[in-house]
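Homework help board

Subject: predicted structure for assignment chain

Our instructor gave us this sequence and asked us to write out the predicted structure in token form, then describe one feature. I got the tokens but I'm not sure how to describe them. Can anyone check?
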Amino acid sequence: MLIDCDTCVVRGKGCPDCVITVLLGMPGPIELDAEEQTAIGCLAEAGLVPPLRLVRHHEGPSRGIA
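My token output:
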């Protein structure tokens, strides 16, 4: 999964409650492999970090990483 905060349509207002900002700050584009996606999804489901809030054009907000 490629995550590019520069292309997120909720950048700014969604950043404070996004797992990427919480864990990494505002990185450039990053690639998460399947294991990383699963781990971050588990942390989010457990309430330890917020879910991924990435919203690309023409899609709704992500409900965590899976």
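Reply (TA_rk): Your tokens look well-formed. For the description, you could write something like this. The longest strand covers residues 2-3. That's the kind of observation they're looking for.
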